[in-house]
Design goal:
The two termini are about 25 Å apart. Helix content is about 85%, strand content about 0%. It is mainly alpha-helical and about 100 residues long. It has 4 helices and no strands. It has a domain at about 1-50. Helix 3 (about 50-65) crosses helix 4.
Amino acid sequence: MSNDVRDYPARSSQDGLSRFLGGSPLSVAFRLVLLSILVGVVLSAIGFDPLNILNSIRLLIRRLYELGFDAINWLWRYFLLGAVIVIPIWLLSRLFAPRGR
């Protein structure tokens, strides 16, 4: 019984980490790598690459500075386009998430 008491803090912190991550750290890392590769393939198929994303951010900042309210309209359209995908996925993940702790 004394071994169980000594191991309790290590198990408790590991359980907390697993609960925070949503699984064991190795399995979560593996799933994130696979999902990142999948999203990377999709973004590559529509013409994005890491340098293009950085240029898009620079273009956004420049447009906000140069165009004023027209840039807000431009930004709003991209927000709505992304929200069409992101909000339903988030809502479904919350609806089908296990209840409780």
